[in-house]
Amino acid sequence: MDDYDKLTPEQREQKDKEDRERERQEQATLPYEWTQTLVDVDVNVPVPPGTRGRDLVVEIKKKRLSVGLKGQPKILEGELCKDVKVDDSTWTLEDNKLVLIHLEKVNKQNWWENVLTHHPKIDTTKIVPENSKLGDLDGETRGMVEKMMYDNQQKQMGKPTSDEQKKMEALKKFQDAHPEMDFSNAKIS
């Protein structure tokens, strides 16, 4: 990464382009395609046309995934990159030729580098998430994002963050309640 910082903008652009192409080629060798959001991962596994659900053996565990046809070697099998919520993860067979696997992430704050740990990794620092509206978020997440945006704005203007404001308000209330105490030399951290 230090070498990357020393590159000119043109060299960075070229390196990024080469890295994306290398990743694309590596991902193309996998027996599946996958996409992700911060909350879930979708894996599409092609199977022979005419496959029926009862022909499949699909196991989704907290830290493992395997897909195969009964009596044949697994199409994919291994340790998942990160933990999944087994009860919220599902699989379906589409058009008797594609197994759609939906994995619900336990940690909804991280991008996955790969699906199975032994498969090639992608550079998660280059992921550009889809734009979303604050209204799309649940209440708790929305509040957290709004607080982060406010605090970031305050820092840029050299003003105190919301947490610093709360501390200052608490100190002021304490000072008002105890006028007999001298706070002139107090250092607040």
TrEMBL record:
Q: Which CDD domains match?
A: p23_NUDC_like (cd06467)
- Residues annotated as signal peptide: none
What segments bear the compositional bias annotation Basic and acidic residues?
1-26
Provide the protein name: Nuclear movement protein nudC
> What keywords are annotated for this sequence in UniProt?
Cytoplasm
Check the record and name the PANTHER family matching this protein: NUCLEAR MIGRATION PROTEIN NUDC, NUCLEAR MOVEMENT PROTEIN NUDC
* PROSITE patterns referenced in this protein's UniProt entry, alphabetically: CS
- A biological process (GO) annotation for this entry? protein folding
The segments labelled Disordered in the record are 1-29
Q: Single GO molecular-function term? A: unfolded protein binding
What is the role of the protein in this entry? Required for nuclear movement. May interact between microtubules and nuclei and/or may be involved in the generation of force used to move nuclei during interphase.
**Entries under Gene3D superfamilies matching the protein:** 2.60.40.790
Record's Gene Ontology CC terms?
cytoplasm
Domain CS residues, every copy: 27-116
- Where found in the cell? Cytoplasm
Q: Which organism is it from?
A: Schizophyllum amplum
